[in-house]
Design a protein that fits this description.
Chains A, B: InterPro entries: P-loop_NTPase, Polyphosphate_phosphotransfera, PPK2-rel_1, PPK2-related. Chains A, B: Keywords: Kinase, Transferase. The structure is a homodimer of 274-residue chains. The first copy, chain A, has 274 residues and is of the alpha/beta class. Chain A has one domain: P-loop containing nucleotide triphosphate hydrolases (Rossmann fold). Chain A is 49% helix and 12% strand. A six-stranded mixed sheet of chain A has the order 1-6-5-2-4-3, with helices on both faces. In chain A, helix 2 packs parallel to helix 11. In chain A, 41% of the residues are buried.
């Protein structure tokens, strides 16, 4: 599945089918069953990674989630990330920068929220906002935005060198699917709080956003920090796909229970005498 | 159940049955079924509290977990807190203070991890370490520790005034139960990473710790920031009890879906035209 989702320098988002389920030929029920089955393995692997970190293993995961509004980031957090022990997850949601954050380097607030060893870090939006909305809305000078691609490449290279496996996901929905989801938020009083009139303003700029995504992906996709474009019109598939990407990294890390750094026999005796 | 668990100034921990299940007359299977049923309500109430916060509701929850080693804090985090959407949980684990933390006021690191509006904050250990292990191990001068009780009272009063519901829980196990649980960590290679020889050192000071807990509870229990002593030899009961305490607070808060702060008809038209 992962090779089918991998996006490279030549990605053309408009050509990708947002209702597709690449690499999975089951239906929604099968997808949900697979998700439930994967949750246990994900939790078990994370616990092992965490255990290894207690003995000095520096490795960790960073999942970066980017998407247009309503694409399903929240559902990924709830249903995929939420299946992991909260002690093993470091979740950071990056909103519109505060005045203090705007006064510092755009990566500074990102640095402060990086996951520690043994953790699965998850970014709900990220430093990519600084080359996405920042580009579309011209929130920074053009040459500054151009410079940021290189800074992001260097930053992610350093993360990887320090033991972080970086997985970057764009949840890809169609404008029609977004319209339906926004419609539902308007139709239901218990969903009004999720609706923001500004979302329609951003929606009007869809093609410009897609260009900004394509450019960001082309500039920053790398084998050590790959981009995946996950078709997200079917929520169940997007969740399964992101879980799969996490599982794949964790299996590759293959964490091991650390050996005791104490004398087990001695401790048995001490404990018995206590 | 909550009144049965409430601890006051006269709490005598040695007199409390750590295997009891006060307020619940079912067995383990019934307890686990009740926990699963409560998880949905907990998640739904938290989502509503979060939604309300988007419209300016400042209210939030802070659950403080304290316990001797192996008492089951991790299981509470995994099985009770883990059932809530991770976007609605702010979990902070307080370890042995760093040199930087020791150089500042003991409440400074706590302040930095307080939950925002709409969140369920959970402290895995807390400022109470500064009157528990600090007292037992004489990590600060005696008069300084005496002063801290009052500072904690003032601190928690302020939290409550700012809209935080404070729930303080001591998971209460027996020394025998702890011995069994430490034994299991020694017996299983996949549990060795959870074993710390220092735990046996602390175990030897059990009565002194119980005195420190009794004193801390007596000094800081208040109707606005109550202490609950939860019998924890039966893990399933402790989880159910803590879930119950959270549910009780959330039901009392009775959060409401916020009204739309936009014109729904206008937005329907804008969306249709986009």
């Amino acid at each position: 599945m992962d090779q089918l989702l991998r996006a490279g320098a030549d990605v053309r988002l408009a050509d990708l089918d947002t209702r597709a389920t690449p690499g999975f030929d089951g239906d929604k029920a099968a997808g949900e069953a697979a998700l439930a089955a994967g949750a246990d393995e994900l939790g078990a692997l994370q616990e092992k990674l965490f255990a290894a970190s207690r003995a000095g293993d520096e490795r960790r995961i960073l999942l970066v989630l980017q998407a247009m509004d309503t694409a399903g980031k929240g559902g990924i957090l709830r249903h995929v990330v939420g299946a992991v022990d909260p002690q093993g997850v470091a979740l950071a949601a990056f909103k519109k920068p505060t005045p203090e954050e705007l006064a510092e380097h755009f990566l500074a607030r990102i640095e402060r929220r990086l996951p520690g060893p043994g953790m699965i870090g998850v970014f709900d939006r990220s430093h990519y906002e600084d080359v996405l909305i920042a580009r579309v809305r011209e929130l920074a000078p053009a040459d500054e935005i151009e410079r940021r691609y290189g800074e992001i490449r260097d930053f992610e290279r350093r993360l990887v060198d320090d033991g972080t496996r970086v997985i970057k996901v764009m949840l890809h929905i169609s404008p029609d699917e977004q319209k339906e989801r926004l419609q539902e938020r308007l139709d239901r009083a218990d969903k009004h709080w999720k609706y923001n009139p500004g979302d329609v303003d951003e929606r009007m700029l869809w093609p410009t956003y897609m260009e900004a995504y394509e450019r960001a992906i082309a500039e920053t996709d790398a084998d050590h920090a790959p981009w995946f474009v996950v078709p997200a019109d079917r929520k169940w598939f997007a969740r399964l796909a992101v879980q799969h990407l996490l599982l794949r990294e964790l299996r590759a890390l293959d964490p091991q229970w650390p050996a005791a750094d104490f004398d087990v026999d001695v401790e048995h005796e001490r404990l018995a005498g206590s």
